[in-house]
Amino acid sequence: MKFETRAVHTGVDKDSAYNSATTPIYPTSTFAWDNLTTNRGFDYTRSGNPTRSALEENITSLEGGYQCRATSTGMSAIVAALHLFKPGDHIIAGDDIYGGTYRLFADVFTGMGLKFSFVKMREPGRVEAAITSETRCIWIETPSNPLMNLVDIEAITTLAKKSNLITIADNTFMSPYLQRPFELGVDVIVHSTTKYLNGHSDVVGGCVVTREKELAEKVAYTVNALGLGCSPFDAWLVLRGVKTLGPRMEAHQRAAQAVAEMLAAHPNVEHVYYPGLKSHPQHELARKQQYGFGAMLSFDIKGGRAEAEKVFERSKLFLLAESLGGVESLMEYPETMSHASMTLEARREAGITEKTIRVSIGIEHPDDLVADLKQALDF
Ligand SMILES: *Cc1c(COP(=O)(O)O)cnc(C)c1O
User: Domain with 48 in it: what CATH number?
Assistant: First the structure.
């Protein structure tokens, strides 16, 4: 069956008692056994819960994997994936990965003995040069945040296979509707389901998807042992959201393309970062490895902080907020918000300046979004 059909139906049917159309929420910590050796497939909610299983089956199908574990946040999904490695192991990641992931790697896991190199991953040669005899994993995040640099997934997995390395992709920005890293040779996928998979800005969650048994068992073990699984209610919310992923992504990116084209032509805009524009240096790679261009974009305005402030003040539709992937459009200022934890030097090195504004395009009508941003830019 096709993607949209699987999104609506896979895993959902969990009510053998009344045949409800939607999955019941099972708010229970424990499940009674029939006798000393048999239960109905669940014994304790940290280890497994029918509502969470419904979501896990659904996402497994959408990514084309073997197994999924739904976690309490995107960060806990990443924590689970990192437990595939042990002290002394070396991991290569991009130098423009999600800030929370950078903090977890450079601070928490470095403190526990893992080693990291952060390289410009849009150039596969730099990844190859960073591989040592201790390297075990390449961490892929594409497109990057906020400047929408792409990583050539297939080039990286080809490299990884030569050296027997595990590849893990954070697929949050694209969602499985627009990018399926398993098809390009990736071993493990993580998501912040907080973003497009849920899509309604009303829950935080994450997941780890694996495509073969051995890694699946290790991840499942860690999620249970560390207690990272999400609550039945949160699983239910994400499952509710996931059913409309396809149609939402279509609406998101239709509006994003319209906004990007308006921005590219606006006299008060210096540069637009959106892979759907032909002017994006990796537009062809985006066409090759993605099923669309997504709905995250950034732009540099003419001027600086004072002008940026006017844009935020004048806009009536875009909420001034971090996060992304919800039905409502958001706008934020990486300099003081999402990327404030980077040093000033690191921000400038990455290309983030006082001119940079990041936008998460929602599913409002493109005409309204274009009109609102256009008037906001007439500062
Ligand atoms: C938001 C995000 C995360 C972290 O997810 P949380 O649900 O906030 O814990 C990780 N990676 C990317 C790319 C994100 O956008």
Answer: 3.40.640.10
Q: What is the CA radius of gyration of the chain?
A: 21
For the question of residue 46 being annotated catalytic, the response is: yes
Distance 150 CA to ligand 1 centre (A): 17
pLDDT in tens, 16-43: 899 999 999 999 999 999 999 999 999 9
DSSP code per residue over 153-217: HHHHHHHHHHTT-EEEEE-TTTHHHH--GGGGT-SEEEEETTTTTT-SSS---EEEEESSHHHHH
* C-beta atoms surrounding 308 within 10 Å: 22
Q: Is the CB of 143 under 6 A from ligand 1?
A: no
Q: Which two tokens stand for residue 168?
A: 């893990």
Is the pTM above the cut of 0.90? yes
- Average pLDDT of the residues of the chain: 97
Verify that 140 and 267 share a domain, yes or no: no
Indicate whether 219 and 263 sit together in one domain: no
- Tell me: do 235 and 290 sit in the same domain: no
Specify whether 214 is located in the same domain as 333. no
**Count of domains observed in the chain:** 2
Residue 194 Cβ < 6 Å to ligand 1: yes
Q: Within its chain, how far is the Cα of 247 from the centroid?
A: 18
Which residue puts its alpha carbon closest to atom 6 of ligand 1? 74
C-alpha distances in Å from residue 341, one per residue of 147, 177, 334, 335: 17, 31, 10, 9
Dist. CA 284 → ligand 1 center (Å): 26
| CATH number reported for the structural domain that contains residue 355 in this entry | 3.90.1150.10
Catalytic, 305? Answer no
Domain that holds residue 321: 245-377
Q: Ligand 1 center to residue 100 CA distance, Å?
A: 7
Which of 222, 242, 262 finishes a domain? 242
> Are the C-beta atoms of residues 141 and 170 closer than 8 Å to each other?
yes
